[in-house]
Specification:
Layout: E1 7-11, H1 21-26, E2 44-48, H2 52-56, H3 58-62, E3 94-106, E4 114-119, E5 132-135, E6 139-146, E7 155-157, E8 178-184, E9 191-196, H4 203-208, E10 213-218, E11 229-237, H5 250-255, E12 261-264, E13 267-268, E14 271-274, E15 278-284, E16 291-294, E17 301-306, E18 309-318, E19 320-323, E20 328-333, E21 340-346, E22 368-375, H6 399-403, E23 409-418, H7 420-424, E24 437-441, E25 453-455, E26 461-467, E27 473-477, E28 483-489, E29 492-495, E30 504-507, E31 511-517, E32 523-529, H8 532-536, E33 540-545
Parallel strand pairs: 3-6, 5-10, 11-15, 14-22, 23-26, 25-33
Antiparallel strand pairs: 1-2, 3-4, 6-8, 7-9, 9-10, 11-12, 12-13, 15-20, 16-19, 16-21, 17-18, 17-20, 21-22, 23-24, 26-31, 27-30, 27-32, 28-29, 28-31, 32-33
The chain binds CU-O-CU linkage and copper (II) ion (2 copies).
One copper (II) ion binds at residues 155, 157, 476, 478.
């Protein structure tokens, strides 16, 4: 009961101006977390006694009148397909292309122009970065041209690329510079991935301004190749009333940014028609929003894949699927026997978002409609069978090794330190990072010069990821796909019921998730919370593989 009470503090527009890039650009790598510029202050007003409904919309409340309305973006257009990154190579097995990150103006709200940062020229088509559609065995060579006013990198989220090709924050590409990323996709890497910037402390902003795109790696022997594919890339957008990209406010930094819009392939609430059984690939490219996906009521679907590709066996009869920020999934959606309609919805989900009052949480996120689906099975739409075995997945951990105690163990602890006094101090907001909030891994915020953990290439390890904070955090590890072994909550252990390859896993408040993982290449890998504001605030660390 008491957790449902709260105190919302509103932030004036000036106070909420937390655009960091100018200040970031001037800081050296080392003093960023310690230095707070106290300029750009404003006053904060207490607004006690608001109703629960208002609390659920605290974002809107905190910037009331400054955000575009929830219907400002047109809805109801047919689902856009991705732009495609064109292969400039004619050599077999080589995918060579150019990706330009640049400021682009687009008319999203009729009559207004929005300054975005996008991949590709994007004068037309979806604002989602172009699809990189490649095959196992391909050598991929992407020339990245940075036309942003900030340093950037491209990170190949989930792909087993060499550490020095993975867009680490310690390998920035300067504004105006060009960099070539090169890697070869191994056998078994078929799956659904994405790419996004990963510069030190500027990832959140670059993504919320529009930089992110999908990758599909295909296998020659794909058991679901006969299914027509549908691609749904979810992203978040927060627009000010003048249709500009709104800055982060205090609540965005604390809980991760959630806009008033969830976009599907770059548009609000598109519609799609399913005329036969389809394979859906889903990307949660939102900065912080969890998507508890449902087709409404009792309508079921079959999950066939996770981040790193197909499951060993399909999971039938699901009515919902939780995708944490950064996660992907594949599912088979049936056209059914009769025409019908459904709303693809992000159902109610409680990730224990915090308020600015110690120990209090916001209510669960309300349901949000994402897309309108019409099922129109044609006369030729015979149901396609999903094979009972999709591909073999061997457990990374052999029980013999575990029993013999031969498996190296590592511990990752997510923690937070909230100094509510500092957060509420008059004029507490400034032009860099918000004061009084620390999101930590193993007791420290990210320091690019510090190695938190060291692993040996080729050695399978068990990692325990423990969440000691008051809210949920999606854990992500670079360079590999891992297997979740079990989850532990208040002493009760639940073994993971199915084998899957993942690079991102949600760790609930108070929970410990155990994974089996192995790195193949020597070098430095990042691991972090995939709520991008938390990552930028320091909930990230470096794994050194030797
Ligand atoms: Cu998708 Cu290190 O990130
Ligand atoms: Cu990643
Ligand atoms: Cu987090």
């Amino acid at each position: 009961m008491i957790r449902r009470e709260f105190l919302v503090r509103t932030l004036s527009a000036a106070v909420a101006s937390l655009f960091a890039r100018d200040v970031f650009a001037q800081h050296s790598m080392h003093d960023m977390h310690g230095t707070h510029d106290m300029s750009g202050m404003g006053d904060m007003k207490d607004m006690p006694g608001m109703s629960q409904d208002h609390a659920a919309h605290s974002h809107a409340a905190s910037s009331a009148g400054h955000l575009a309305s929830e219907t400002a973006l047109p809805a109801g257009a047919p689902l856009a397909s991705f732009r495609k990154l064109v292969n400039e190579s004619s050599e077999p097995g080589v995918f060579r292309a150019t990706l330009v990150a640049q400021p682009v103006r687009r008319q999203l709200v009729p009559g207004h122009s929005t300054a975005l940062w996008l991949y590709g020229d994007a004068a037309q088509g979806s604002i989602v970065g172009p699809l990189i559609d490649v095959r196992e065995g391909d050598t991929v060579e992407i020339r990245f041209v940075n036309r942003l006013p900030q340093p950037s990198t491209i990170h190949w989220h989930g792909l087993p690329v060499p550490p020095d090709q993975d867009g680490n924050p310690t390998n920035p590409v300067a504004p105006g510079a060009t960099h070539v990323y090169r890697f070869t996709l191994p056998r078994g890497s078929a799956g659904t991935y994405w790419y996004h910037p990963h510069p030190h402390m500027m990832t959140a902003e670059q993504v919320f301004r529009g930089l992110a795109g999908p990758i599909i790696v295909r296998a020659a022997d794909d058991p679901l190749a006969a299914f027509p594919e549908r691609h749904l890339f979810f992203s978040d957008l927060k627009l000010a009333s003048d249709a500009s990209i709104a800055p982060n406010d205090m609540m965005d930094w604390m809980n991760g940014r959630e806009g008033q819009f969830v976009l599907v392939n770059g548009a609000r609430r598109p519609r799609l028609t399913v005329a036969q059984d389809e394979r859906w690939r889903l990307w949660n490219g939102c900065s912080a929003r969890y998507l508890r996906l449902s087709l409404g009521g009792e309508r079921t679907f079959t999950q066939v894949g996770t981040d790193g590709g197909l499951l060993d066996k399909p999971r039938d009869g699901l009515t919902e699927l939780l995708l944490a920020p950064g996660e992907r999934a594949e599912m088979v959606v049936r056209a059914g026997a009769q025409p019908s309609t459904a709303v693809l919805t992000a159902a109610v989900h409680d990730r224990r978002k915090m308020t600015m009052t110690e120990g209090r949480s916001l209510p669960a996120d309300p349901a949000k409609a994402l897309a309108d689906v019409r099922f129109e099975p044609g006369p030729a739409a015979a149901a396609r069978a999903v094979p009972p075995t999709l591909r073999p997945i061997a457990p990374l951990l052999s029980s013999a090794d575990t029993a013999a105690g031969k498996v190296p163990r590592k511990s990752v602890v997510f923690a937070e330190a909230m100094d509510m006094k500092a957060m509420h101090r008059p004029g507490a907001m400034m032009s860099t990072l918000p004061p009084g909030m620390k999101f930590m891994v193993n007791g420290a915020t990210f320091d690019p010069s510090h190695i938190a953990l060291t692993s040996r290439a080729g050695e399978v390890e068990v990692w325990s990821i423990e969440n000691r904070t008051d809210m949920d955090h999606p854990f992500h590890l670079h360079g590999t796909q891992f297997q979740v072994i079990e989850r532990e909550q208040t002493g009760a252990k639940t073994p993971e019921p199915y084998l899957a390859w993942r690079d991102t896993v949600d760790v609930r408040r108070g929970e410990t998730v155990r994974i089996a993982t192995v790195q193949r290449d020597a070098g430095e890998r990042m691991f972090h919370c995939h709520i991008l504001e938390h990552e930028d605030l320091g909930m990230m660390a470096t794994l050194k593989v030797v």
